[in-house]
Amino acid sequence: MKLNEGKIFIFIAAIMIGILVSFNINLSTDNKREYVSTKEYQEMYNKRNKLYREVSDVREDYQSNYKKLNSFKSGYVDKEKNIADSIVEELENNKILLGYNKVQGNGIEITVRDGFDELNPDIEDPLLRYMRTFHNTDLIQIINELKLFGAEAISINGQRLMSNSEVYCSSAFISINGVKLPAPFHIEAIGNTENLVNSLKSNDSYVKRLQGRGINIDIEEKETIVISPYIGDLKVNFLSSKKNK
């Protein structure tokens, strides 16, 4: 009898284990877990932070424009002169931001030259010559770093950098705003001088990488930098504020 009871107990335990196993299998199929790599997680995290910043900027713009609208409505009858002055002031600020006004402020000047020995300008090794030549892609990287580090206005050899300015290789020249610029390149940037200098001289900056390739780069702090306005018309053929029906 005791033997039969043991067999019955084992049989019942086996049935219970089977039920639990099948339940876990079904549960795992219904609730699939997806795992992401460290790189994918970082990309999603950065994307989320970027969206947060964009939403915050939109809210700030909305509040600012809403206040302006209310001030215009409340002062339209008896304060037309003040409203006109406010509109003119805002127009001038927009011109400064867009690049149509001359601006000045403290900042830095970066001078970039190819890494050739003045006594021996010819380098036979094509790879070494390529590495020691400053390319338009290198200039784009420096511009991106300056913007990242807080530069508010940038010019290259006197050409004001606009939102649609091209940085294109034209043989021995680099073309910006349709103007071919020869080396050396003088990059002027208005912004927080200390922050710009420290960031560009950090070990992980692109400037350091260029210096490691043998490119000659000098960074000079300046109390006053004057950047001329963009000369020309900003043509818009396809942009529209109206929503397509």
UniProtKB/TrEMBL annotation:
<keyword id="KW-0472">Membrane</keyword>
<dbReference type="Pfam" id="PF05949">
    <property type="entry name" value="DUF881"/>
</dbReference>
<dbReference type="InterPro" id="IPR010273">
    <property type="entry name" value="DUF881"/>
</dbReference>
<keyword id="KW-1133">Transmembrane helix</keyword>
<feature type="transmembrane region" description="Helical">
    <location>
        <begin position="6"/>
        <end position="27"/>
    </location>
</feature>
<keyword id="KW-0812">Transmembrane</keyword>
<comment type="similarity">
    <text>Belongs to the UPF0749 family.</text>
</comment>
<protein>
    <submittedName>
        <fullName>DUF881 domain-containing protein</fullName>
    </submittedName>
</protein>
